[in-house]
């Protein structure tokens, strides 16, 4: 194990300024009350409270929320993932199921089948429990009366599929099919993933000894947003919630210095989200135990004052060339994205280049390249890196082999490298700073806090280790052009932890946390219905720019490339107001922080 952990250092407990306060001796107690008092004082109640709050929100959403009104709750891409469950679940010999149960997956979606396999397992577990519990009753209770081929779901769930929503409590009004049954189990799968994510966040906060404000601000940033509070249950057949759980598992394994926990997380990520495996690989290859000498970092930072400026300019030139090629020469676009106005490039292109310069120069200021080179040249470290790289290579080859066995190469993939980059560049240039607006819309005010404290965020990321810093670097570089922000959901836990960690050493006023939580919940749009009469028909055919008109835009306004100009201006203005409000509340704290320095 020592070979896998080169340059191992003790756990870093110097970050939190409240550490000494937490180590104070407890008040004297009588012998009869000492055991109970010790347990209550040491037990981290947020380990229970955070999952309970998540479970409570799941119950509230089941009672008051909605599910996407397309393909019986399966949406667009979700039909493929539902069909994976079909292929595993029902007997192919049955004539009426034979065609639907054929497993045919394109090379892109095959890397997102892990949630479907998990749903299949959860259905088996529910069926087994149903068979064990129902014989205990002489008369089956009402809450167990509903089942479809002995796969039970609560009666109140099926109101989402009712012909008349006002009569959803009436069993006769429910249009129950196998499609809606599978979508229902995806909803419960999403809830399980969120419960696991909440517990892992609480464990990560405990491992890092984060203060009260930082841990709850991080919890709000992780859960109070459109991506989690709304989309997890509204569009349950997507793989985003499982990707969030896998990312949180990777982050906890990294913080806990558990290299071997990263390997199953990497396998889960490989078949959940295309970029997840590479995140786990970076964390496995560069564990948190790798620490460069701070003296070398400071000396190099002082000697390379012009490096960050040159890096920013160089990155700007590369982005300019890529923009010209993808947007003006190749003319690559996402499907049904509004056309780029040539005159608008006079505004959007300089803003994109400024975004590149600001981000890359900030990153370059934090990377001590010479110190890193010296570290990697040390022979005592090479054995550990070589062994880790070999393990990752073998694992990647095995996963790639199984991917080839499952996929159907004759099917057209909805995404490839050219479309990914070309469509992203085109969308980023279609509206001024669209990736920033889209990120704030989908992930909430935590994005704005990160921007307001960008330098401190990067310093906190570096303090969390080289692997963490490399993952954050990938997030920030992709975020420059990525306006379809849901594709970055597996980076969300890393962003949230960096913000919370950077704020842990300063005293935030309570009003700041309350304001942040309130604004985050409002921005999550849990109060805004996406469904409307006739949505299924319109959503099934979104050609001709119909997605840019309301009421269908209520859904598409949350996904950057398909955000209309009206939604862009409205949500961009709200983001500016919230950023100003956060700065007004936090600026006295920032000023005190800089004054101490």
Distance N to C terminus: 40 Å
**Series of H and E elements:** HHHHHHEEHHHHHHHHHHHHHHHHHHHHH
**Gross morphology:** globular
Taking the sheet with the most strands, its summary is: 2 strands, antiparallel
Q: What is the radius of gyration computed over CA atoms, rounded to a whole number of angstroms?
A: 25 Å
Uncertain residue segments: 1-41, 163-175
Adjacency order of strands in the biggest sheet? 1-2
Return the domain count: 2
Compute the number of strand runs.
Answer: 2
Q: Look at the helices and sheets and give the structural class.
A: mainly alpha
Assess the beta-strand content as a share of residues.
under 5%
Level of helix content? Answer: 55-70%
Number of helices: 27
User: On the 0-100 scale, what is the average pLDDT?
Assistant: 79
List the helices and strands and how they pair.
Blueprint: H1 19-22, H2 34-42, H3 46-64, H4 78-89, H5 95-98, H6 114-133, E1 147-148, E2 151-152, H7 178-207, H8 212-223, H9 226-234, H10 240-255, H11 259-270, H12 276-285, H13 294-303, H14 307-329, H15 345-364, H16 369-377, H17 379-406, H18 417-430, H19 434-443, H20 446-452, H21 454-463, H22 466-481, H23 492-503, H24 510-523, H25 535-539, H26 553-556, H27 565-596
Antiparallel strand pairs: 1-2
Helix pairs in contact: 3-7, 4-6, 6-7, 7-8, 7-9, 7-10, 8-23, 8-24, 10-11, 10-12, 11-12, 12-17, 12-22, 14-15, 14-18, 15-22, 19-27, 20-23, 21-22, 21-23, 24-27
């Amino acid at each position: 194990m020592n070979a896998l952990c080169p340059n191992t250092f003790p756990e870093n407990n110097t970050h939190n300024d409240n550490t000494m306060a937490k180590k104070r001796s407890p008040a004297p107690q009588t012998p009869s009350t000492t055991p109970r008092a010790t347990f209550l004082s040491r037990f981290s109640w947020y380990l229970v409270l955070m999952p309970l709050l998540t479970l409570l929100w799941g119950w509230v959403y089941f009672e008051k929320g909605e599910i996407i009104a397309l393909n019986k709750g399966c949406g667009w891409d979700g039909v493929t993932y539902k069909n994976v469950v079909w292929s595993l679940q029902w007997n192919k010999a049955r004539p009426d199921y034979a065609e639907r149960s054929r497993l045919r997956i394109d090379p892109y979606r095959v890397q997102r089948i892990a949630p479907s396999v998990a749903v299949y397992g959860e259905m088996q577990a529910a069926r087994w429990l149903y068979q064990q519990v129902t014989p205990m009753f002489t008369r089956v209770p009402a809450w167990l009366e509903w089942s479809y081929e002995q796969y039970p779901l609560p009666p109140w769930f099926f109101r989402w599929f009712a012909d008349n929503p006002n009569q959803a409590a009436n069993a006769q009004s429910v249009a129950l099919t196998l499609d809606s049954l599978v979508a229902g189990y995806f909803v419960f799968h999403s809830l399980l993933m969120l419960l696991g994510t909440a517990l892992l966040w609480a464990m990560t906060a405990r491992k890092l000894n984060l203060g009260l404000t930082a841990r709850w601000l991080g919890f709000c940033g992780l859960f109070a947003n459109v991506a989690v509070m709304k989309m997890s249950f509204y569009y349950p057949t997507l793989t985003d919630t499982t990707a969030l759980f896998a990312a949180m598992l990777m982050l906890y394994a990294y913080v806990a210095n558990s290299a071997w926990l990263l390997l199953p997380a990497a396998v889960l990520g490989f078949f959940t989200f295309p970029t997840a495996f590479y995140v786990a690989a970076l964390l496995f290859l560069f564990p948190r135990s790798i620490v460069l000498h701070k003296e070398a970092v400071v000396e190099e930072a002082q000697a390379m004052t012009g490096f960050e400026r040159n890096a920013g300019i160089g990155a700007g030139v590369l982005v300019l060339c890529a923009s010209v090629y993808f947007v003006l020469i190749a003319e690559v676009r996402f499907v049904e994205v509004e056309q780029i106005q040539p005159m608008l490039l006079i505004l959007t292109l300089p803003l994109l280049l400024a975004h590149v310069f600001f981000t890359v120069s900030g990153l370059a200021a934090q990377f001590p390249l010479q110190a890193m080179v010296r570290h990697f040249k040390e022979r005592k470290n090479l054995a550990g890196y070589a062994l880790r790289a070999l393990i990752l290579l073998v694992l990647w080859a095995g996963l790639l082999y199984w991917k080839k066995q499952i996929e159907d190469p004759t099917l057209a993939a909805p995404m490839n490298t050219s479309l990914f980059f070309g469509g992203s560049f085109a969308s980023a240039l279609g509206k001024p700073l669209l990736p920033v607006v889209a990120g704030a819309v989908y992930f909430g005010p935590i994005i704005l806090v990160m921007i307001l404290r960008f330098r401190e965020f990067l310093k906190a990321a570096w303090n969390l280790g080289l692997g963490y810093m490399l993952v954050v670097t990938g997030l920030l570089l992709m975020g420059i052009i990525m306006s379809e922000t849901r594709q970055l959901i597996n980076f969300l836990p890393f962003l949230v932890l960096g913000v919370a960690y950077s704020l842990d050493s300063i005293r935030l006023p309570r009003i700041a946390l309350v304001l942040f939580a309130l604004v985050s919940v409002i921005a999550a749009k849990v109060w805004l219905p996406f469904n409307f009469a006739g949505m299924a028909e319109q959503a099934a055919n979104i050609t001709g720019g119909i997605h840019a008109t309301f009421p269908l835009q209520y859904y598409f306004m949350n996904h950057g490339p398909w955000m209309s100009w009206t939604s862009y201006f409205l949500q961009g203005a709200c983001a500016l107001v919230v950023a100003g409000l956060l700065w007004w509340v936090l600026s006295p704290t920032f000023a005190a922080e800089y004054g101490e320095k």
